[in-house]
Amino acid sequence: MEKFNELIKIVKKLRAPGGCDWDREQTHKSLIPYLLEETHEVIESIEDNDYDALKEELGDLMLHVIFQVDLASDKNKFFIDDVLDGINRKLVNRHLHIFSKDKNHKKESWEKTKKKEKKRDSVLDGVPKSLPALLQSRRIQEKAASVGFDWDNNKKVLDKVDEEILELKEAIIKNDGIDEELGDVLFSLVNLSRHLDIEPESSLKKSTIKFIKRFKEIEKEVDIEKLTLDELDEIWNRNKQKNNLKK
Length: 247
Prior knowledge:
This protein has helices at residues 2-15, 21-25, 32-47, 51-74, 80-93, 96-99, 110-117, 133-146, 154-174, 178-195, 200-221, 229-246. With 247 residues, it is an all-alpha fold. Among the domains are: 2-76, MazG-like (Helix Hairpins, Orthogonal Bundle), CATH 1.10.287.1080; 200-247.
């Protein structure tokens, strides 16, 4: 708590008269791009399994939390104690089967408890519309699964993927409803990734990086624009086989 309070004091001093001009100019909205950047840097350090970077990036992210709270406290909207009290009560209320002295409380799914607490019409409510589409679809699927709306084995999920791909092929032949059917294929693939316990965003990113690496290898080898697609495909497959042998 001593270090935490020190951070609060530092932020207040930076934003006080005579402090840092840049910090004094910031608003809740102006900080959004930096908050997003810091969040992605935290994610990157986790994906890289880099604990030194994670330690630093979590500190940067915590700075943004304190900064946002300090901006709100200037307007007497809320204070850091309100934020901490809110999350403490939320965690306890959503785990009454653990924290309550009354052991008659039954364990409920997190999403079902949130629905009651926030008086929502559906357990699917509450997913930010601004989330990237892959993450948004995964969160919707997780919420539905939390109340039992889910396949019980991977084969059924794979069958659904095959079904959606078939419907996409039919839409392409008919030249009608292609956009919707492509979306259904992507949604079913996200569902498959969830069942396989693989993050679709991370998986897609790895494949993109792999494509970039292999494409650059071809660029070093030949002048791409002077070759036919069949010739390039042959080089691509040869390099792919060579890289697979290295593994």
